[in-house]
Amino acid sequence: MASAIALLPATRRTSPATIINFARKLNITACNYSSSSASRRKQLILYSKPGCCLCDGLKEKLNTAFSLSSPTPHSISLHDVDLQVRDITSNPEWEKAYQYEIPVLTRLRSDGTEEVIPRFSPRAGVDHIQSKLAAALSRDD
């Protein structure tokens, strides 16, 4: 299963119904989302804003890292990860928190809190990003 990268409406928590409705608007025919599969999948959140060249560069590298990732039996695969891109200009709390820090990548813990993943250098290669993400996602909550 390929990982999904989508710009979702700015909400604190996105419900399965919202994701399905958003997918329909984008004409995505196969939206495999259920609360049971969501609990097993790892989730990343990228805080970004339009016109941010660093954000665009990271989104492009993440997209490549997700598409080139191959499932492995003994480690975290990026195929088991969902990425949500949040536009900080759509939420005053996000804008206040991240306006000088974007792009900010976080992982969603099982308790609903977010852990910031250390920033990647804009010169970092896709292999480096894949290994750092795998390490961050393999940590226990």
Gross morphology: globular
Strand order of the largest sheet: 1-3-2-4-5
The major sheet is characterized as: 5 strands, mixed
Helix content: 25-40%
Structural class: alpha/beta
Distance between the termini: 24 Å
Alpha-carbon Rg, integer? 15 Å
Helix and strand succession? EHHEHEHEEH
Number of H/I helices: 5
Stretches where pLDDT is under 50 for at least 5 consecutive residues are 23-39
| Residue fraction in strands | 15-25%
The count of strands amounts to 5
Task: Return the average pLDDT rounded to an integer.
Answer: 75
Please tag this protein with its features.
5-stranded mixed beta sheet; globular; 141 residues
Describe this structure in words.
The protein has 141 residues and is of the alpha/beta class. The protein has 5 helices and 5 strands. Mean pLDDT is 75; it is low at 23-39. The two termini are 24 Å apart. It has a 5-stranded mixed beta sheet with strand order 1-3-2-4-5.
